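Support request, please re-run this one:
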Amino acid sequence: MSESRAGADLSPRYDPSGIEPVLYRRWLERNAFHVEADGAADPYVIAIPPPNVTAALHMGHGLNNTIQDVLIRFERMRGRDAMWIPGTDHAGIATQNVVERQIARDGLTRQDLGREAFVERVWEWVRQYGSTIISQLETMGCSCDWERTRFTLDEGLSRAVREVFVRLYEKDLVYRGNYIIHWCPRCHTALSNEEAEHRDVDGRLWHVRYPLADGDGHVVVATTRPETMLGDTAVAVHPDDERHRGLVGREVALPLAGRRIPIVADEFVDPEFGSGFVKVTPAHDPNDFEIGRRHDLPEVEVIDGDGRMTGDVPGPYRGLDRFEARRRIVADLEAAGLLEAVVPHAHSVGHCYRCDTVVEPRLSLQWFVRMQPLARPALDAYRRGDLRFHPERFGATYEHWLTNVRDWCISRQLWWGHRIPVWYCRAEGCGGTHVSREDLERCPACGGEVEQDPDVLDTWFSSWLWPFSTLGWPDETDDLRVFYPTHALSTAPEILFFWVARMVMAGLEFVGDLPFTDVLLHGTVRDARGRRMSKSLGNGVDPLEVVERFGADAMRFTLVSSAALGTDLQLDHEDLESSFRVGRNFANKIWNAARFALGHLAADDVERRPADLDLELADRWILDRFGRAVDAVTDGIARFRLHEAAEEAYRFVWNDLCDWYLELVKGRLNGERGEASRAAAAGTLAFVLDGALRLLHPVMPFITEELHCHLPGRTTEDTLLFGPWPDGGAVPRSAEAARAFDALQEVVGGVRRLRADYGIDPGRRVDVVLVDVPQPLRTAVEQERAGLLSLARIAELRFAEAAPAGEPGAHLVLAAGGELFLPLQDLVDLERERERVAEELERLAGLLAASRGRLGNQRFLEGAPPEVVEREREKAVSLEERLVRLREKRASLGEA
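Re-run finished. Output below.
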């Protein structure tokens, strides 16, 4: 049953904790966020980037999900069937690592539990954190279609994963082979190229002598990883390198290993690097692997999956950790006189994106996806303009990656995830490999026993199907027909390759259409020192803590207004008050202003429209400003420049509506200028307040919904969820009122500035003379005299043809014409002020003389850093401007 709010009093203090949970439950009870495919009109769809079920959400999730909710609420208010698909990702490596650490506290490993029991332990974790994440999203006000919540290991999504694997295999786009992959010794799994995060480190370049096998001298190779030299199977030079052409075909003695290896010629070698010789280690370097294949070189694995030296290295190094082996090998080379030089060398080193361990390139039998055939259509879609990036600069990054894309290693040596749908026949004489959509019990060829591949698929192999697997693909469902493709994707730039580009490929390959048309890439949430937030640094901000302290609306507004598209956002994790003060204060401002307004409005006022009212100057002005605000906010959200939309809404509500219009119409609302004037002010205020709440609703849904329900004549059944969104074209505009009001604001601002310049008590009323002002300004002043006197704290305002002769006072030239004169005789101690100004003039003149002296010194101009010289020039200009103002002030004070 609905509750009438017309007579309900708003609390004097805004308390989001008493409002937000109640409103969210009401929305859920109405099933307000659900959209059915049947009858959906002009759908607008976003598929959430599914957060990992490893832990609770962080502030990066808070920002990204707020952005998505703003877009969904905006389009829903514009009359579209806006649907936001929620869900979570099983996060193979990350989730398995978390649970392995958990059972390690009990002294157990996953091998102790066995595969089935371990996977069940992971499911327990997922059930706990999956619901936690959904609860967090609800607390932040996310208007997801919760009936459509998906998990990447759901039965339907798992079926889609298997279907894709089989289809790609049937098209020869999935294959198994021995290639160099990135291996994490900590996670014990292969990684894709994108999962090995490369960072520049300060390392060393060791120059090692490789003796020629016949004893006739040596060659010098340079390496950043001496431990891999034990796996060298050749030394290579460029075929056109005249210095070393005669050595091609000869052999060197591999130091410390006692093996002879050939010198080969290969065009990959850069003759400008070092001595022109490079060591070739086919089992531990992707480029060396290709050289080895071209020259039919052996592949000797010297580092195993644990990052330790294998049995194929000399005895003293076997079983050593790779970095300990490096230290011993370097020492032994030096002792043998084979270490020619060691030089500092900054280079890029891959790290596991989950555990930060230095990854090891190693030869491994893995499953891969051929990417070039999939990349071409995705690249063409961008070049045609069908796929747009915001900011645009990321389009070039996307294009570069797709142009140079490598095959994707999709197998992971994990237990948690989608098991690879491949079965190997163990029957003697068969040994067939079978890829199947259904689980196999026996070999389809011979009926023998089969064993499923133990590996699972890369997490992103399920995520790249997310926009359509969540809608029922591979079945031709109504949801897929109506809601695919989705419209916008909001995510972080760091997964542009992991996820975004791959989703584009998958959508085009399997559904025949892009999964979305617009990609928003927001910045990273950082701490006050610019560091990425992380658990290890202890500098994270918990969204739920922020909501508890300041409210979801305050958090949402702060995030949206502070996060210009593509730029990072900084928050002080040690001082949340300073970080979220803007949003908290804005919410309080809205609440207090609405509380005042609602105390002066009746149901009739809410029903009136501007065309029905006898509008006055202030009314026409606020309507003009409101119309402009509607246009700007609408355009900002539509162009995905949400921070601009939020800032425009803030300026309109705080400055125009609260600080100006409400102050001007207080007397009129009380009936001081008659009923017609009161009705015009109240009707205009109701119209603009209702519209302002609508403009703010996508960003601040709770406070706007609550205040909207309190408008006279409204009940809890009335909601802003479905709009309508304000129509800027339907709001009356008045260029004349805008010009007149600009002039009035200049008068008020001028009086306030002069009061501050002369140190006049802010509470003391002053007299003001407007000298030789044009008629439009005179008319505007007369129309809004009462409000003007109140806003500027003016006791008497009069017009004159000329400023009072001989009377000390402050002058200000008005842009609208004429000038403003503020008599000072009874406001300041003129003699004392003259003395203070004279002292300040003398001080500033000395500073300016010193600055000009430095700028006239050629040694300073040539020797100081350019930025120091520029600062000095800016300082001189500022001093000159301050001196001009002080001389004007001295003149206004008259003679002593």
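The radius of gyration is 36 Å. The CA atoms of residues 740 and 780 lie 6 Å apart.
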